[in-house]
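Sequence and fold:
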Amino acid sequence: MEMLPAAFASGWASGINAWGTVLVLGVLGRFAHIEGIPAGFQRTDVLIIVGVLCLIEVIADKIPYVDSAWDTISTVIRPIAGAAIGAIYAGATGDLTTITLASVGGITALVSHLTKAGLRLAVNTSPEPFTNVAASSAGDVAVTGVATLVALAPVAAAVVVAVLLVVGLIALWAIFSRIRRGWLAYQRWLSRRKNPTAA
């Protein structure tokens, strides 16, 4: 498996849903017997833990403002996961290759995470919940598709991810004012949770 494209593409997927990325890769390695997927992802305990965490994330990600709270918490988790996946692909030996792949995975995860979080803030300005569910479901499909491509064709996955990153950043620029409104609405939502009597 080409390690650099795999680290880049899996980093992007980790920035959207780190648990889902590990789950898809682990399942493909364990049950589809696809070579090149780290053995650690295929362990039963790992699959159970990431499966439960993935389910929690999939549900939380579809609830307006809860998704943004989850994204805030995940600002640390997702880039670390992206870096860890890159390092594991390199064999986690601590050499220059490990550092490079960990950096690629972590930075890509951070960029995709921030892009996703910004876009979801904009989506939260919509008064109905269906747009939020649709955006979350699209993210679930994208993570599953990209993680599967990482296992089967990492170079193709990297090309797809490069396009998605560019499109996402352009979208952020185009709807920046809605993202700002979404951030202010999220802050008000947090205030109401902290002080219900003020609502």
